[in-house]
Design goal:
This protein is an alpha+beta fold. The chain has helices at residues 2-50, 56-114, 120-135, 173-181, 230-271; strands at residues 137-145, 151-158, 168-169, 185-186, 202-208, 211-221. Strand 1 and strand 2 (151-158) form a beta hairpin. The chain is elongated, with a radius of gyration of 34 Å. 15% of the residues are buried.
Length: 272
Amino acid sequence: MIDEESGYRGKAEEFLQAFKKGAEFTHDLLRENERLRYRVLELENSGAGTLSGSGGDQSQALLNRIKELEQEKQDILDRIRKVEDENEDFANRYIEIESENNNLANLYIASYQLHSTLDFKEVLQIIMEIVINLIGAEEFALLLLDEKTGDLRAVACEGLDRDDIPPIMLGSGLIGQTLQSGESYFAENIETYSRDLLSPMVCVPLKIKEHVIGVLAIYKLLIQKEEFAQVDYELFTLLAGHAATAIFGARLYSDSERRLSTIQGFIDLLTK
């Protein structure tokens, strides 16, 4: 990921150099255009003074030369417009590269944070921070599958009371259907969405390969968040896989720690 980011920055530097050369070329063309305008004016003044006293051939030659210079001027203007269009295209591409660099940085940070700890509570907190700070959600819930009962139960909420979200069975409602299908759901129009705890605005399955272990349900976005950007969908994809892996690993670690503590307790009792 770092090598990719360095590559993007290298491309950005190359673009800046090309942009500077384009600007210098445009400046030179403008100066040349000004010189030709001045030359045409001189010829026009000179032609006006000599037309009456010179022969018809000389006058025609001057007129032809003026036409040639006018054509050259038009060609230069066309080239200037072409360079300006290219410069605008370069500027737009530079903005896109900067945006992509920021998106890649956010994705890298999110991925790194998710795998920076094996503590279950810390993993949940990191997921919540990603959803708030990077996606821009105000009200959402994280539900995990209870292997014993087979239903989804809310383990963390933001802007909601966890007790208000009932256990959800496989295939029940939008959240249960997401658990069953393993496919993400996005409301067609987030502006007209009205909060329904069983039918969220966004529903993203947390899965390891094809095994779904939980669901992220989003009910409301921050006021400054009017729509989802492309990076948001990439973050949802990241959460669908990496968050599930981080949660699964933290659970295994917690279980192993409890078992180790229990075994150590038995050993201490036997040795005493």
